[in-house]
C-alpha cells in the first residue's frame, strides 16, 4: 500500500512541476455583448521589465467565443514590435472548429475557450519609452462580428 502511495505522490509532484512555467504577461479585452467591430483595435502594451534577455518566450492568443459565433475560423490582423522596434504586421487564421463542426478547445455554459500559439521571441533591452506592443483586430468580412466574448494574449 505504501508503494502505491509513493508512486501516486511522485506522479502528482511531476505533474505540478511540469506545469510550473512562469507566465509573465496575461491580459484580456472583454467585448461587450460578444460583439467585435471591425474598426475596434485591441491594444496590449508590455513594459520590458521582468523579462530575461537570454530566454525565449512563447506568445499565445487566447480566445473565448459563444454559441452565436457563425464561422469555424477567425482571421486576425496582428501588429507587433516584439522582435524589433519596427512594427510588423501578421495575418493569422485561427481554426476554431474541425471539418465536422466540432469546436476545438474547451468550455462550459455555451462558451468555448481556445489557446493558440502565435510566435516566440527573445526580448532585447529597451528603454522606458519603447515598450513591447501588440495590437489585434479581426479581419473578417463582417463589420460587426458576433460571438466573440474576449480576446487576450499570454506569454
Q: Can you describe this structure?
A:
This protein is mostly beta strands and 155 residues long. 11% of the residues lie in helices and 43% in strands. It has one helix spanning 2-18, and strands spanning 26-30, 35-37, 42-46, 57-66, 73-80, 88-95, 111-121, 132-138, 144-146, 148-154. The strands form three sheets. It has a four-stranded antiparallel sheet, with no helix packed on it. Strands 3-8-5-6 form a four-stranded antiparallel sheet, with no helix packed on it. It has a two-stranded antiparallel sheet with strand order 2-9. The longest helix is centred in the N-terminal third of the chain and has 17 residues, at 2-18. It is globular and about 45 Å long. The N and C termini lie far apart (42 Å).
Structure summary:
The protein has 1 helix and 10 strands. With 155 residues, the chain is mostly beta strands. It is globular.
The ordered H/E elements are HEEEEEEEEEE
User: Structural class of the secondary elements?
Assistant: mainly beta
Mean of the pLDDT scores?
83
Oligomer kind: single chain
Name the helicity range: 10-25%
- Uncertain parts: 5-20
Widest sheet: strand ordering: 1-10-4-7
Count of separate DSSP helical elements: 1
Q: What's the shape?
A: globular
Beta-strand residue fraction? 35-45%
Rg from alpha-carbon coordinates:
19 Å
Count the beta strands: 10
Whole-Å distance between the termini?
A: 42 Å
How would you sum up the major sheet?
4 strands, antiparallel
Amino acid at each position: 500500500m505504501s508503494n502505491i502511495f509513493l508512486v501516486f505522490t511522485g506522479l502528482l509532484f511531476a505533474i505540478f512541476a511540469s506545469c510550473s512555467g512562469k507566465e509573465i504577461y496575461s491580459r484580456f479585452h472583454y467585448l461587450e455583448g460578444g460583439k467585435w467591430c471591425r474598426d475596434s483595435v485591441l491594444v496590449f502594451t508590455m513594459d520590458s521589465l521582468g523579462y530575461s534577455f537570454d530566454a525565449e518566450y512563447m506568445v499565445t492568443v487566447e480566445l473565448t467565443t459563444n454559441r452565436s459565433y457563425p464561422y469555424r475560423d477567425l482571421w486576425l490582423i496582428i501588429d507587433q514590435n516584439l522582435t524589433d522596434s519596427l512594427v510588423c504586421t501578421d495575418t493569422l487564421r485561427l481554426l476554431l472548429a474541425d471539418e465536422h463542426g466540432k469546436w476545438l478547445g474547451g468550455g462550459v455554459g455555451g462558451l468555448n475557450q481556445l489557446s493558440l500559439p502565435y510566435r516566440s521571441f527573445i526580448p532585447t533591452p529597451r528603454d522606458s519609452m519603447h515598450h513591447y506592443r501588440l495590437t489585434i483586430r479581426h479581419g473578417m468580412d463582417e463589420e460587426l462580428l458576433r460571438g466573440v466574448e474576449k480576446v487576450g494574449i499570454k506569454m
